[in-house]
Amino acid sequence: MSNDIPQSTSRRHFVGMTAAALAAGSLSQFAFADTNQAIGRITEPANGDKTAIRPFRVHVPESQLVDLRRRINATRWPDRETVPDESQGVQLATIQGLAHYWATGYDWRKCEARLNSYPQFMTEIDGLDIHFIHVRSKHENAMPLIVTHGWPGSVIEQFKIIDPLVNPTAYGAPASDAFHLVIPSLPGYGFSARPQTTGWGPERTARAWVVLMKRLGYQRFASQGGDLGGIVSNIMAKQAPPELIGIHVNFPASVPADILKSIASGDPMPTGLSDEEKHAYEQLSVNAKKKRGYAFEMGTRPQTLYGLADSPVALASWMLDHGDGYGQPAAALSAAVLGHPVNGHSSGALTRDDLLDDITLYWLTNTGVSAARFYWESHANFFLAADVNVPAAISAFPGENYQAPKSWTEKAYHNLIYFNKPETGGHFPAWEVPTILASEVRTGLRSLRT
């Protein structure tokens, strides 16, 4: 099978090429952790070229799911928290309730079928196997768009925005708003390989994504992301490859250096800030003081987190806790687990099964620690003004770590083509408000279409 899929290739021809690869190639197994049990199959080309676009399908042996349930049921629980709220972390009753459902009522096979309903592939880039979903629109002149997830997300986080972006006419938008979507798994996340050497941080990943898009035949494309995906998109824009026509991020990096320095020093709020800037300053101050513990640990000592590989419950509680409990930005996660709004914050379209799909993917691929290392490999401040010249569209959701003021954003993104503050949504808009996020992406990048 050829490495490249021309941009003009129709969906029918694309599927035909995939079928041909299945017929001509051989199957190799994608192994779970360090065992010999496969959780997926890769169709290898006859010539053994690892840089080819190799079809991939997920199939987890039942024995792995039995082992998962066994480990959940064997959890040794600590004492209950000594406070009546979530201020000490994920509450015992909350995680025990989630664990009981995970072991007795949750069905991974539904997620597996959803994954396999999309065209999935592997390709080796810079010595590392990268997994990705590739869904082409039926509409002519669709814009190629690479969408990158964050932590604790995965490609599963993007499921609900795929159809609205690929098939906009079904959602009241014009065919001219269609996208061809490429949704990769970050290095060390999900089905992408776990790096065995240092160096796979946002900068290298951004360069790899350009290689991936060109390998698929896309000579002009845009990039989208939130959380770590926003960081990758920002860095790609700073690298400014000629193929990149613009970015849309819902996790903007727009904070001036002097503001970050003031917060780090614990100084009083600077004078002269607008009301919008004061609100952002207060959000950032609370975030720095109380909500970055998990990020500090993963950014400095990720290898210490052995519990993420040994205990499903340890993995789940770590992924649920962002130091903010029932506050933003993790309120949607807590609301989804509890089944009701917390502190007035709804989970939106995010469900308990969505979260367990994501957590189970981390468990089955044993990527809790390798995903954490991406923070260790990230050396820039995630909030620092991006200094980007590439056309940029920004959506500042109210439930984000901080709601970026337009005044800061204009200085960080020198070619700001779109800025909006949606009325609802938080740090996980692809999960929480997928229809709104899809609309933001369509509107934000519309001016880049030719």
TrEMBL record:
<protein>
    <submittedName>
        <fullName>Alpha/beta fold hydrolase</fullName>
    </submittedName>
</protein>
<dbReference type="InterPro" id="IPR029058">
    <property type="entry name" value="AB_hydrolase_fold"/>
</dbReference>
<keyword id="KW-0378">Hydrolase</keyword>
<keyword id="KW-0058">Aromatic hydrocarbons catabolism</keyword>
<dbReference type="InterPro" id="IPR010497">
    <property type="entry name" value="Epoxide_hydro_N"/>
</dbReference>
<dbReference type="InterPro" id="IPR006311">
    <property type="entry name" value="TAT_signal"/>
</dbReference>
<feature type="domain" description="Epoxide hydrolase N-terminal">
    <location>
        <begin position="53"/>
        <end position="157"/>
    </location>
</feature>
<dbReference type="GO" id="GO:0016787">
    <property type="term" value="F:hydrolase activity"/>
</dbReference>
<comment type="similarity">
    <text>Belongs to the peptidase S33 family.</text>
</comment>
<keyword id="KW-0732">Signal</keyword>
<dbReference type="Pfam" id="PF06441">
    <property type="entry name" value="EHN"/>
</dbReference>
<feature type="signal peptide">
    <location>
        <begin position="1"/>
        <end position="33"/>
    </location>
</feature>
<dbReference type="InterPro" id="IPR016292">
    <property type="entry name" value="Epoxide_hydrolase"/>
</dbReference>
<dbReference type="InterPro" id="IPR000639">
    <property type="entry name" value="Epox_hydrolase-like"/>
</dbReference>
